Amino acid sequence: LEEAEAQCALLNSESLCDGCFSSDSDIFLFGAKTVYRDMCLSDGGHVVCYEMLDIQQKLGYGRNSLITLAILLGSDYSHGVRGFGPETACKIVKAVGDDIILQQIRLEGLELVKKTKGKKREKALNANKENNLVHEQNIAGNEQNVLQRDQFVKVSDAYLKPKCRSPDSEEVRRALVQSPFQRSKLQQACVGFFGWTPEKTDEYILPKIGERDLRRFSNLRSTLSVLGVQVPLNEMPVPCPISSIIKQRKVQGSDCFEVAWEHLDGLKTSIVPADLIQ
Questions:
Q1: How far from 263 is each of 56, 126, 186, 259, CA to CA, in Å?
Q2: DSSP E strand boundaries for 115-251
Q3: What pTM did the predictor assign?
Q4: Distance (Å, rounded) from C-alpha 11 to C-alpha 18?
Q5: I want to staple 108 with a disulfide (CB 3.0 to 4.6 A). Which of 32, 112, 159, 228 is the partner?
């Protein structure tokens, strides 16, 4: 079966979408960069956002480290290694490092774990040979039922090579193609899923539709500028969606502009971030 989280993560990692909505933390192991959850749609609504970059910079765990933790502690694809708790597994991952941890554990299996454990306990175990012998016997007993090296490879491959459609597949291309905006169908969908009135849908969604179109236009202009290509605005393959800038605004301390929209059904004006205009 194809993994829904894996497909979303692949699109996100290839910058084909801005983020993924998921309550499954495995989505980071599939390569997702931005994950949203706990969305509240009531007045003053909010959504919780997690960034893989924050996990790397603040916690020190990259994708390889997270996959290794899934191997040792358990996940949708394994029961984990018997006798390992979060503290021990995290220490081993940190000791080896994100750059090589997954490669090493795929090659060496639990031998890597034994070596890493041994280095951390060397002084204490050498000080008491009797305790050393008892400890090694306990390790042998605990490790009788753990995953073998080929199982480690199988679990890691489930995250590194999941069953999903490639970014250049026909299915992904069809999903990403820009269809004409149909306001009535959007309103029908929001009534069915959220119980929103058409007016509420227009208020909440239409400004974001406009901002999306403006962001697409802005990104294309930036890319052409980097490439040194000068294209007149009226010849851009993605048309400029705004007809005029009304005035500069401040929203919660951020620079913005109030703009008038061109040919966007139901939306005449709204406020957008200044960086999209500049």
A1: 43, 78, 17, 13
A2: 242-251
A3: 0.69
A4: 9
A5: 112
